[in-house]
Every structure is written in structure tokens, then in C-alpha cells.
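Subject: Proteasome subunit beta

B.,
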Amino acid sequence: MIFNSEISGQQQHTTSPVVTGGSVIALVYNGGVIVGTDTLCSYGSMATFKNVQKIAQISKNTIYASSGEFSDFQQVVKELAKIDRSALQYDDGVHPSPKDYGNFLARLSYKKRCKINPLYLQNVIAGFHNGERYLGLVDIYGTYLESNFITTGFASYFCKAIIANYWNENCTLDQAKQVIRECFKVLFCRDCRAHDVIQLAYVDAQGAHIEEPERVETKWDFNGFKSRANEKLHTQ
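Prediction pasted inline below.
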């Protein structure tokens, strides 16, 4: 983001994010790639916007999600949509692949970072092209990598053990969904910038599918919550 200073009249770069989104979790499964986010955007430390879609369909076979400054997310969606729209206008049957979008976003992020005006985002690009699954990560510095699973935000600290224990790249779509639900259940309990309403999207040979938001099930009736606070009671 860029704003004009009323005091100096000079153009200044944003030095810190303002409205931010939390963790993104993405997994490959036996028929495609699934991505999950929650629907919360925080204004500073306030949980202000609780019904925000942070997953965008870029093309027929590509979806995009990110953690970080939401206005930067909106700008990236516009930039990626321009590429898809331009390809449609050429009408030559050639369309960018999900990997093409990932490479473009890596170059864009690196360019912005070199101008000391970075996109405050950890970006996730997921797609399915020519029978192959694709999952890529681009960070604030333009670093690019591909993996079978990706976590951003606090999910990188709290959820990797869950993924390692319960997920594999040949699992079914329903199994992958359940792993992501378990991850967001943990995040809701341990991350103050997380929300218990999540949204899942997946891309397979038939194209991209963005599901309606859902609420994860949480458990609050532990004996330790009902009785006096004593570590000996927290055994459930």
C-alpha cells in the first residue's frame, strides 16, 4: 500500500500491515489440492471483520490464498486476474498454468520488495494442470518454493505435527478436509488472530471449487474449565 502524507506532501510507503488475515493451510490429496483459511480479518489486535473470503479463484484450474495485509491480497487478485483476462482476450487457446501464476507472483513480490514497498503477504497458489497437482508458496521477499503441503502464519508452528501424523499425499479429499478442520480447531484455541469459521476450496481435474464457510467443532467442557485451576485437573 502507498499513501500520501498530508504533513510533508511526499509519497510514503506503508511500514506495517493494518487489516490482516491469519493462517492458510494447503494440502495435496489423491485427486488435487485443497486450501483452507478462516474468515477473520483483524484490524490491529481487534477481530473486526468476521466474514471475509480470503480465497480467490484466479482461473478455471487455479486458486489463490494468502496470510497478511488484506488490501495487498486484493491487489494481487487484481494483478493475477489481468493475466487470465488477457489470455482470454487473445482467444488462441493458450492459458497460463498454475505454475505460471506462481512464478509471476514470485517476480512481482521480489520487485516490490526491492523497491522497499513489499507485499505484506505469504501467498499460496494451488492448481491442477495436465493431470498434475501444483502447490506453491511465495513469501514477502519473493522467495518461491513448491511442496506437497504448505502452512502459513501460526499454522507453521501449531499444525505441522497434526499434518505429519494424519495426512499423506495420497489421502482422499474427505480425509484432507478433516485434517484441515483439526488444524483450525487447534488454531482457534491457541492463536488469538484465528476464527472458528473456516472456508475450504479445492481444485481437481474438473476445475476449482470454493465451498461455503463452515464452523469447526470445539470442546470447552473440560473439567479443568469447570473446576478450580489446577494443573492436576487438566488430564483430559
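The mean pLDDT is 90.

T.
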